[in-house]
Amino acid sequence: MSRQSAPIVLDPAAGDADAENRLLRAQGPAARVDVLGVPAWSVTDPVLLKELLTSPDVSKDGRRHWPGFDEAVRTWPLALWVAATNMFTAYGGDHRRLRRIIAPAFSARRIAALQPVVEEIASRLADGLESVPAGAGTDLRERYAVPLPIAVIGHLMGVPDGRRDEFRTLVDRVFDTTVTPGEAAANTRTLYAMLDGLIAAKRAAPGDDLASALITSAEEGGEAALTEEELRDTFLLMINAGYETTVNLLDQAVTTLLSRPEQLAHVHAGRATWADVVEETLRHEPPVKHLPLRFAVRDIPLPDGRVILEGEAILASYAAANRHPDWHGAPDDFDVTRLTKDHLAFGHGIHFCLGAALARMEGETALRVLFDRFPDVELGVEPNDLRPVPSLISNGHRSLPVRLRP
User: Fold this and answer.
1) Do 230 and 98 meet the contact criterion of CB atoms below 8 Å apart?
2) CA distance 160 to 244
3) Residue 221: pLDDT band by 50, 70, 90 thresholds?
4) What keywords appear on the UniProt entry (predicted)?
């Protein structure tokens, strides 16, 4: 394969992500890209990506391992993605310490205890949709896919009902890759002010929630305790990761099923389960297309002879890797009966998403409740008319028009 002549400039508005992913894969196991002005290696080969995600030669700590860190913090719209001090950006012992503190909140027992809460939230939202007249349209993303995970993460973190929409707006801007550096910085300041307010409120009146437990850990954890900066940025991580990704999972699952009624028929006939739908959606349309950033701790040779040099940035391109032709047969087909639905939607290795089990449970519950209540739901527009959210990170639609009772 010939060497790539120039970096591929990733589209911040994600106008045609599928075409862009095909272009990236055509460059070999990794492609040189421009991520809003930052040079990086987009890794699209799943074998190579798994190797890098588990390698000690790859770090998520830009402060220690990326020469471009200081400049990015000043000028890059995605500065928050590398500058936050939490489990997401930690490396080595720091990562193990932070993950150990947070992991108990996502144990199998705690997820099972949350299932009735998710069921109640989904049923309540479906009750609200009952008021939509037959034949009338509604935006299912706005009225179901968005409020459900907001309510779940709000319950988990103890975010007051009256503050959840504010957090939603701010988190949306974190994933929006069309904002200017100044707009991104202003959004970060506002978001941190709200997080500081939440922490202060929880200190004054602790509750039975993860936020209060994290504050207790920060104050009583001894040598393993969270610093104040780590505490605030862990709040940021929990709210960001627990909201946007699940919104997109529900959005893409509903969109794909309504675009391919034969796949929904498999579920109704018992040939597939809602768990199958969730896993195939995560493979076919992962909630996160590209996840910034990782960094080479030392030179890393690639299978085609090129080298990722020490200090260069690495972009985990999950959407392109999930549909790599060497991994799955007919990778562009959405097939809920597919026997092997392996994917990288939740990452791989030590940074595998702690909230994966919660996201899967939310997805299965929300889809079951929705289609049980509205078995004849249909798209209100042609699939090609749906517009993507303006993000090279987030993989969803700006709206999801449907008719619940055609």
Assistant:
1) yes
2) 18
3) low
4) Heme, Iron, Metal-binding, Monooxygenase, Oxidoreductase
Amino acid at residue number 43: V
Q: Is the dihedral of CA 84, 348, 104, 106 positive or negative?
A: positive
Using H for helix, E for strand and C for coil, what is the string for the chain? CCCCCCCEECCCCCCCHHHHHHHHHCCCCEEEEEECCEEEEEECCHHHHHHHHCCCCEECCHHHHCCCHHHHHHHCCCHHHHHCCCHHHCCCHHHHHHHHHHHHHHCHHHHHHHHHHHHHHHHHHHHHHCCCCCCCEEEHHHHHHCHHHHHHHHHHHCCCHHHHHHHHHHHHHHHCCCCCHHHHHHHHHHHHHHHHHHHHHHHHCCCCCHHHHHHHHHHHCHHHCCCHHHHHHHHHHHHHHHHHHHHHHHHHHHHHHHHCHHHHHHHHCCCCCHHHHHHHHHHHCCCECEEEEEEECCCEECCCCCEECCCCEEEEEHHHHHCCCCCCCCCCCCCCCCCCCCCCCCCCHHHCCCCHHHHHHHHHHHHHHHHHHCCCCEECCCHHHCCECCCCCECCECCCEEECCC
Residue-wise pLDDT for 316-366, tens only, equals 999 999 999 999 999 999 999 999 999 999 999 999 999 999 999 999 999
- Contact present, 163 and 200 (Cβ < 8 Å): no
User: Please, what is the average pLDDT of the chain?
Assistant: 94
Domains and CATH numbers, the chain: 8-382+391-403 (1.10.630.10)
Residue with tokens 């202060």: 200
Average pLDDT over residues 360-381: 97
CA-closest candidate to residue 313, choices 66, 79, 90? 66
What is the Rg, in whole angstroms, of the alpha carbon atoms belonging to the chain?
Answer: 21
CA distance 87 to 98: 6
10 Å Cβ neighbour count for 164?
A: 18
Buried b (16+ CB within 10 A) or exposed e, 67-78: ebbeebeeebbb
Task: Determine the residue type at 330.
Answer: A
Query: pLDDT digit string (tens) for 261-314?
Result: 999 999 999 999 999 999 999 999 999 999 999 999 999 999 999 999 999 999
- What does pTM read for this prediction? 0.95
